[in-house]
Amino acid sequence: MMRFDILTIFPEAFESYFNTSIIKRAQAKKLLKINIFNLRKWTKDKHQTVDDRPYGGGAGMIFTLEPIFKALKDLKKHQKQVKTRVILFSLKGKKLTQKKLEQLKKYDRLILICPHYEGVDERVAKYLVDEEISIGDYILTGGELPAMILVDAITRLIPGAIKEDSLKEESFSSLLIKNLKLKIKNLYYEY
User: Fold this and answer.
1) pLDDT tens digit string along 31-44?
2) 131 - beta bridge partners?
3) How many whole angstroms from its chain centre is CA 130?
4) 176 and 96 fall within a common domain
5) Is 105 buried (19+), middle (13-18) or exposed (0-12) by CB count in 10 A?
6) What is the pTM of this model?
């Protein structure tokens, strides 16, 4: 069973999406497990503060190191033998591709950090995560949508989540693209 642990300050953003369609059925079949954690759980002040102004100035607020560090430490201590990858969604990250999804599918567990506001303390990216991933060259208000996209796309690749025939007919299959090009070429010659 593949496990997704999602760190966010907006856990309610995931509720309806992960409780419908293919993702819901895959969870019911125990093909995957999705845990959504409110990052504020790992704060120490009464306001549950997760952000602060960037050190050195600048506009906006960034997630601080401490709650992310505590969350990762807490999540990792229970499953040390599990093949885990920690991902931070960031515009600076590698672009999410089908090839990257195939690589990530091989992990037992993905911990997804969903930043908000102006991002995170740079030390998070440098010391706490295995990689940064971007879903495109545009700016979103947070990492919740990229997390949903990644979970959705990987779910489709888990055996039993969708019919095998559907996967074989996906457009990223090199054979399908080759056949499509051949059909287009033949169609062109008929006219």
Assistant:
1) 999 999 999 999 99
2) 87
3) 13
4) no
5) middle
6) 0.86
